[in-house]
Amino acid sequence: MKAVSSQIYDFTGVAGTASEPGPGIKACEGKDPDTYFQVYHPWNFRPKSGSDNDVAMGNLKEKLSTDGWVIKDSYRDNSANKNLNLIADNDSKKMSVWVVAYSKRTTPSLGIEVTSGCYQVPEGETIEHS
Length: 130
Fold this sequence. Notes:
The chain is α+β, with helices and mostly antiparallel strands. The protein contains two helices and eight strands, in the order H-E-E-E-H-E-E-E-E-E. It has one domain: 2-Layer Sandwich (TBP-like), CATH 3.30.2030. Strands 1, 2, 3, 4, 5, 6, 7 and 8 form an eight-stranded antiparallel beta sheet that branches. It is elongated and about 50 Å long. The mean pLDDT is 93.
């Protein structure tokens, strides 16, 4: 998960900072939460220059069409700012990423959530959802 989040960070192609904390565990929708889980990592990327927010999103749109990544959706949301949303999957890595460009905020940033596919809890183990 951290390696994929780092790859997404690199894909932005601009200098900036990433927020904390790290990955967490959640239940898979529609599956027994004691048997299946997903790893997720929500974070925020803030470019050093606010004007680089759109550059970072453009770079992501380009890079998330390479190296096994496939863009599944790109749209403007219903918020007052009509934020650009980008959703991409990487089947070989069993990962998905959802990026929201908050370009019209006082401090522009990208909201990013990387989510794994569903995994089965190993026999005899338990998962603590966060």
